[in-house]
């Protein structure tokens, strides 16, 4: 009897589930975030599915941004790709030129969803849009680099303020060293921070043609700018013991070195703000915008993180569903949900203002997290600080990293290393331009 | 001897078809595709390609870092093969001697073969990590001496040991099987003539093992060229400064991470050619010394 009842219930459930899913327009979403952040993405899908009964998001984690792009390309070539892809900036030059995407501005207009595009921060809008101002992809999880400093160790060295110039940083490192701190600066090479964002903040080019925005025939320039002097300084600090190389391959990451109280300063994305809070370091700490050299007029930094791309070749129902999900993510409560569960920043001015008015950034653990906004909006983006639009950028980054590592290990001088990285990077750029002959970034 | 003749029957192609189909789908077709891509510039998202002739090969072969990658791949292949086969042979000889507890060892030694390469890399991460691994004890004695992120030779040593450890099991199984197929009467006769275990190994067992030895040499060298990806990826990531950027790892990072499908295809063709050439050399020159009984 009970068994019969159970079967009947199951059948009834299956029937209702069947009709429910038949009514709902489904779309697939592949995302790259993993771990805690991956769980946040999955939760946004659940929240979306629970918030309405017309659409259903089917969200699949792909174990990292790079894998998400690789898997999507493989699926795309087989005609089995998702409607929505979360992709990081360095992986999208190919996608932009292939034209196999549905610009979100157009998608929203076609599906009748209203989004106030002017509400997005210009630093973010410029990064993800075409020359004509049309958004390619939907900004979502956005960050920018900052540095984290150990207030207790700084106090020991008689310092109360976190400097915003590199000259001030060097003086602070020296004071820390004199006060008995063995590792003032936990350094890990990062092309995103040391090259790209450094060049933005100083208003110097990474590549010609406005960092690639104005043509595929651009060439790398970072071996001719202030970047060289900066990297030489880092090498000198490492040699003088003012900094220590802290990478996972060398035994301990820079973040762990900071959290354990060994090193006084480390650079990372603002997204780490939440993680460090969770790790509860046994000292007072804070964040500061990345420093610039004296005599340079500071410019804005640009966003990192990822954006959501709508791919071509799907049905109208899938596009409607995806548009609804993207609009859902852009609402204030959903941006706030992401902020509360990660270290990311708001992407629209209205949400940021509303959060500030509510006192969101006045209470722990969010205090001072909006320093990232200060960095992003320091100036209006200039032609050199819109961002970087270069093909084969993943390879250029890895050329930079390998060469810098070789220079730090004393195999060559920093200038030689950067010259090699530029020469090899230019080969990649030429090859990329040849692959997409006759095309240009939209 | 009379040769047997069979009449042509449709059964033969029918029975062969499934296997041929599998080989075609998973080997010939992708290889042909790679060959085609190697002569073009392929756009990753589809949308066409341009014919560039030998350009991809010229570019790869004129890159000094590529030759560095070939050099380290050859070192890795030779070192892992020698190390793995040497260890496997030693272990097999002892297990064959039925020393105390040999049944346990036999099973224990076969196990590592079942471990996936990335897992091997991860396990050796706990051994070689300069900050937290077993080798970090060296650093407590002389600080900074062991650092995989700084010294290329240490990184190469680490991947060779991890790679050899994974290969030992496979060679061990074959060596043991070969040793056990040597007729008892031969060893017993030698023993009666007064040959001690070491002498019997050198003069009797090893010469009889040459066919197995040759087979394992070919397999091990091929494997260490093509199957090292997981270990490099988890243990060193190709670093420090490309010191462990093996050919197969470079194919992955250029092709899949960097989306340069054509450059990676050209490298695959070169790697395939290299492995084929090495196998040919082994058959041509080493097999002559092999005596099949």
Automatic annotation (TrEMBL), chain A:
It comes from the Bacteria. InterPro entries: Bact_solute-bd_prot1, SBP. Its main location: periplasm. Gene3D superfamilies: Periplasmic binding protein-like II. The keyword Repeat does not apply. It is found in: Periplasm. Keywords: Signal, Transport. The keyword Signal applies. Residues 1-22 form the signal peptide. Part of the ABC transporter complex UgpBAEC involved in sn-glycerol-3-phosphate (G3P) import. Binds G3P. The complex is composed of two ATP-binding proteins (UgpC), two transmembrane proteins (UgpA and UgpE) and a solute-binding protein (UgpB). Belongs to the bacterial solute-binding protein 1 family. This is sn-glycerol-3-phosphate-binding periplasmic protein UgpB.
TrEMBL record, chain B:
Its main location: membrane. Part of the ABC transporter complex UgpBAEC involved in sn-glycerol-3-phosphate (G3P) import. Probably responsible for the translocation of the substrate across the membrane. The complex is composed of two ATP-binding proteins (UgpC), two transmembrane proteins (UgpA and UgpE) and a solute-binding protein (UgpB). The chain crosses the membrane at residues 12-29, 74-95, 107-128, 155-179, 200-219, 264-283. The keyword Membrane applies. It comes from Rhodobacter calidifons. The keyword Repressor does not apply. Belongs to the binding-protein-dependent transport system permease family. Residues 70-282 form the ABC transmembrane type-1 domain. It is found in: Cell inner membrane; Cell membrane. PANTHER family: BLL4140 PROTEIN, SN-GLYCEROL-3-PHOSPHATE TRANSPORT SYSTEM PERMEASE PROTEIN UGPA. Keywords: Cell inner membrane, Cell membrane, Membrane, Transmembrane, Transmembrane helix, Transport. Pfam families: BPD_transp_1. This is sn-glycerol-3-phosphate transport system permease protein UgpA. It comes from the Bacteria. It is a multi-pass membrane protein.
């Amino acid at each position: 009897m009970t068994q019969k009842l159970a079967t009947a219930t199951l059948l009834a459930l299956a029937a209702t589930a069947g009709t429910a899913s038949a009514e709902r327009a489904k779309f697939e979403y592949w995302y790259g975030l993993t771990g805690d952040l991956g769980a946040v993405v999955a939760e946004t899908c659940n929240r979306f599915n629970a918030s309405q009964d017309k659409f259903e998001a089917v969200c699949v984690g792909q174990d990292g941004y790079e894998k998400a792009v690789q898997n999507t390309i493989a699926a795309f070539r087989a005609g089995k790709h998702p409607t929505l892809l979360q992709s990081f900036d360095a992986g999208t030059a190919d996608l932009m030129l292939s034209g196999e995407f549905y610009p979100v501005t157009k998608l929203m207009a076609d599906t009748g969803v209203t989004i106030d595009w002017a509400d997005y921060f210009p630093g973010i809008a410029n990064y993800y849009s075409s020359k004509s101002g049309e958004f390619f992809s939907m900004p979502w999880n956005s960050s920018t680099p900052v540095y984290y400093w150990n207030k207790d160790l700084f106090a020991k060295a008689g310092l109360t303020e976190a400097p915003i110039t590199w000259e001030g940083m060097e003086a602070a490192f020296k004071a820390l060293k004199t006060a008995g701190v063995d590792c003032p600066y936990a350094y890990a090479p990062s092309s995103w921070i040391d090259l790209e964002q450094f060049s933005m903040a100083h208003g110097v080019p990474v590549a010609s043609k406005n960092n690639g925005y104005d043509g595929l025939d651009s060439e790398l320039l970072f071996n001719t700018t202030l970047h060289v002097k900066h990297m030489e300084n880092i090498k000198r600090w490492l040699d003088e013991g003012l900094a220590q190389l802290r990478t996972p391959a060398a035994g301990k990451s820079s973040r762990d070195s900071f959290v354990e109280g060994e090193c006084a300063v480390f650079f990372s994305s603002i997204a780490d703000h939440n993680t460090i809070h969770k790790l509860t370091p046994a000292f007072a700490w804070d964040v500061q915008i990345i420093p610039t050299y004296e005599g340079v007029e500071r410019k804005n930094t640009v966003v990192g993180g990822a954006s959501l791309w709508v791919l071509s070749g799907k049905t109208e129902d899938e596009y409607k569903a995806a548009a609804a999900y993207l609009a859902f993510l852009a609402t204030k409560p959903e941006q706030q949900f992401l902020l509360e569960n990660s270290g990311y920043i708001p992407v629209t001015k209205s949400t940021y203002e509303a959060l500030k008015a509510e006192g969101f950034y006045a209470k722990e653990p969010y205090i001072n997290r909006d320093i990232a906004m200060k960095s992003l909006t320091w100036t209006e983006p200039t032609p050199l600080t819109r961002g970087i639009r270069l093909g084969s950028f993943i390879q250029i980054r890895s050329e930079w990293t390998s060469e810098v590592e070789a220079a730090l290990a004393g195999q060559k001088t920093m200038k030689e290393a950067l010259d090699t990285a530029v020469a090899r990077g230019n080969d990649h750029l030429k090859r990329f331009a040849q692959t997409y002959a006759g095309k240009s970034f939209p | 001897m009379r040769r047997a003749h069979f009449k042509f029957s449709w059964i033969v192609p029918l029975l062969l078809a499934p296997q041929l189909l599998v080989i075609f789908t998973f080997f010939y077709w992708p290889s042909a595709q790679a060959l085609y891509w190697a002569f073009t510039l392929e756009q990753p998202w589809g949308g066409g390609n341009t014919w560039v002739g030998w350009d991809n090969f010229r570019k790869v072969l004129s890159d000094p870092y590529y030759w560095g990658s070939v050099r380290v791949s050859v070192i890795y292949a030779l070192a892992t093969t020698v190390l793995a086969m040497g260890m496997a042979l030693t272990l097999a000889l002892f297990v064959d001697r039925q020393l105390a507890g040999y049944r346990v060892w036999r099973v224990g030694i076969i196990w590592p073969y079942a471990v996936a390469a990335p897992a091997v890399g991860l396990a050796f991460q706990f051994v070689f990590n300069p900050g937290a691994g077993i080798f970090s004890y060296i650093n407590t004695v002389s600080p900074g001496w062991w650092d995989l992120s700084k010294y290329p030779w240490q990184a190469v040593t680490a991947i060779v040991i991890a790679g050899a450890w994974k290969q030992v099991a496979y060679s061990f199984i074959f060596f043991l099987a070969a040793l056990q197929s040597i007729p008892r009467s031969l060893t017993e006769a030698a023993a009666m003539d007064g040959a001690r275990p070491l002498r019997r190994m050198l003069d009797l067992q090893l010469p009889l093992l040459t066919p197995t030895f040759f087979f394992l040499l070919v397999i091990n060298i091929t494997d260490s060229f093509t199957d090292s990806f997981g270990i490099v990826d988890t243990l060193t990531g190709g670093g420090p400064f490309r010191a462990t950027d093996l050919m197969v790892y470079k194919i992955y990072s250029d092709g899949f991470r960097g989306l340069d499908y054509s450059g990676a295809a050209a490298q695959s063709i070169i790697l395939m050619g290299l492995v084929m050439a090495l196998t040919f050399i082994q058959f041509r020159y080493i097999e002559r010394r092999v005596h099949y009984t």
